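Final report, section 2: Outcomes. Of the targets proposed, Cytochrome c domain-containing protein is the one most frequently requested by collaborating groups, and we therefore present its record in full.
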Amino acid sequence: MDPIRNPYAPGAGQRPPELAGRDEQLTAFDVVLERVQRGRPERSLLLIGLRGVGKTVLLNALRSAAVRAGWGTGKLEARPDQRLRRPLASALHQAVRELGQSGGRHDDVLGVIRAFAERDSGAGAKLREKWNPGITATATKGRADSGDIEIDLLELLTDVGGYAADTGRGIALFIDEMQDLGPEDVSALCAACHEMGQAGLPVIVVGAGLPHLPAVLSASKSYSERLFRYARIDRLDSVAMELALSAPAEEEDAEWSPDALSAMYAVTGGYPYFVQAYGKAVWDRAPRSPITAEDVTVGAPEAEAELAVGFFGSRYERATPAEREYLRAMAEASYLRSEGAPDGADAAYTSVLETELDSVPTAEVARILGKKPQSLSPARDALLKKGLIYSAERGQIAFTVPHFGRYLRDHA
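The predicted structure is given below as tokens.
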């Protein structure tokens, strides 16, 4: 097969040639946009799931839908070492610019955004330490500049939302890696969303994060579960995965045999990133169309080798020796718990089962390592902060990356 015409695109946040299996979320979001624009009450949206399931791709697709609807949009990626003010100000600056107005109220709103951003510099900051948000309007005094992020964010979004309502459109703020927001920023964002909903202003937040994001929000505000509509983004079913592979191939006058598609589901488990990675490798190795199950067998090791370095290995290398020991113990605990698989379970079933059993008790990890659970808390907490594991419920931990346990057992 011609590698130049290879249609598959493995990459972080890179949209695949066929966005399969996400029609439900896209359709529902179109309804949300229309309802909010008409003044109907709607909750903001959160996409939650493991890494590699396409949350960022879907987040970008939803933003494109908002742009098509004439909304002002802005996007930011949360980071553990960064406060919310500056990236949020940049995102809202972009959103207000997309509304396409100028002068008068438009400049007043930009002045509030600038005041909100510049408050991050702190009192007494020197000129070279002050961040310039790229806004020429004069910073507004006494609005969104108190230094209390909860008060300031509410005032900011109230003004931005009021301006959007005057234009007859809305503002959509997209936040990736939302679980990495600091506690104060999470609390402020929840409070602001609560007020926006009560005021009926056309402002919505669309966030994406790891499976423990609901717990992060709940720890901040007890009412957070009522503020957002949660959409769990998971692996593709076999029909959606076949479409993700077949539709791009047809555009290049090629096809996959039914046996090849079954083999691909077995090795990828339906995870979108794996589908693209294996699809690219198998295409390059296949001598001709249709692509066969034998071609999958030949091309799979190349995809696995690339994933071992870029997808799994890069994450493993970020861990310290003590943290790697903890990860390996998690992988062993997951494997021991998965030994209950029925006899004769096929490869696809085993792949899916292994992922479901990646959630293991912290006590079991301690038992495998022969240590007290309390002594392992530093390693566990560090892995949580690095985003390599998550805890959706007390006493249970899981990998944020699908098939990470299998990688650790095979390579580490």
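The chain has three domains: 22-232, 236-317, 320-412.
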